[in-house]
Amino acid sequence: MNGGLQDWLKAIASQSGQPWLITGTPMLDIWTPTPDAARELADMPAAAPGAAAHVAQQLALLGVRTWFVCPPPGGPGAELVRLLELDGVELLYTDEPPQPPWTARRVVGVDAASKAIRVMERRDERPEQISVGPLDWSAILPGTPAACIVVDHHPPGAPPERWINLCGELMDRGVPVAVDSRHHLGAYPPCTLIMPNENEWRKLTGESIWDGQGRLRRRVRRPAGPEEIVVTLGARGFAIIHAREETEHMETHPVRAVSDVGAGDVALAAAFSARVAGAPLREALRFAAEITSRAVQRPGTVLWRPEDGARPV
Predict the structure, then answer these.
(1) What is the dotted CATH code of the domain comprising 185-300?
(2) Which residues, 6 or more positions from 246, have their beta carbon under 8 angstroms from its beta carbon?
(3) More confident site: 122 or 234
């Protein structure tokens, strides 16, 4: 299928039956629960959720049914998550749900001590309790997600083993997995897609994507593992790293950006959602460029919204 922005938006929305899993914390044992899963989850430290929440929100706005695993209330970033606009996102907590207001469609609160869950759903702008029962992840989560994006912004040091293990497990099940990691890309098993920025590429490979004359290197050392590697170059477009270590510069139409904060999250969400919906890689990147070029024309942290669809770029 070759199509424009509206065609791929329709294709992405048509894939929305099975949820995607987006996470910005180490709390991923929920997909393979152990008898002590609730205790383990409660003891895990929370990671900053900002980028993961941003990716989850963008996916929901693109029409993807999105499950977001986020940190427990009181942990780093919990207040940020509560205030984020998460319309359409199903927001999972590992403790009591946050106090209103919140905009996620559904919140699952887990009391690790009593191993019970409380599900809240937003109705008429008010949270309403719809069920309380024993901790049973199978009643909340699908057996296998349609796709997964791991947003790993752990600081340098020991890589997050649970995230790494989950990536491998889902890939073994045939689930497409994209990994966004500032410091640990090299520790992950084979995945479907990585889209590092220029700094993350340098950390991963030890070399710049540019040569001494400011031109894109024709050949680079390609890390083993990811099926597809795309380096985001900001206003200069994308660098596709081919299997034979050759690079391809895919330029994009320049726009006057009001803000580029979070533009990489928007590009990742758009490109991967189009790719999972069947777009060839270059077409998925063209779609991502169109989405991002509209999003950066808003002030603040950027998000593409459906009303931006007809906005000229």
Answers:
(1) 3.40.1190.20
(2) 218, 219
(3) 234
Question: Which tokens sit at 97?
Answer: 């749900």
Residue 58's CB is within 10 A of a number of other CB atoms, namely 28
pLDDT at 243 (0 to 100): 86
Please give the C-alpha separations between residue 263 and each of 8, 251, 257, 267, 300, in angstroms, as whole numbers: 19, 16, 10, 6, 11
The per-residue pLDDT of the chain, averaged, comes to 77
What does DSSP say about strands 116-123 and 106-111: parallel, antiparallel, or unpaired?
antiparallel
Question: 58 near 270, Cβ under 8 Å?
Answer: yes
The pTM of this model reads 0.81
Q: Tell which wins on pLDDT, 24 or 11.
A: 11
278: region left, alpha or beta (phi > 0 left; psi from -120 to 50 alpha): left
Among residues 183, 159, 167, 229, the alpha carbon closest in space to that of 21 is found at: 167
- In the chain, list all ranges with CATH 3.40.1190.20: 185-300
- Among 195, 239, 247, which Cα is nearest to 219's? 247
Please report the DSSP string for 286-307 in residue order.
HHHHHHHHHHTTSSSS----GG
Alpha-carbon distances of 245 from 109, 224, 229, 283, 284, rounded to whole Å: 46, 11, 10, 21, 21
